[in-house]
Amino acid sequence: MARSCPFGACDGSGILVDEAARTASFCRCRGQVVATARARGLSAVIPRKYRGVSFDRPPITTIRDGIVARVRAYVRDLDARLDAGEGLWLYGPVGTGKTSLAMLVSSAALDAGRSVAIYSLPRLLAEIRTTFDDDSPGTYTDLLDRLASVDLLHIDDVGAEKTSAWVLEQLYALINTRYEDERAVIITTNLERDDLAEQINERTVSRLEEMCEVLPVTGADLRRQTFGLAEPEPADVSPARWDVA
Question: Which residues form the IstB-like ATP-binding domain (predicted)?
Answer without folding.
Answer: 85-226
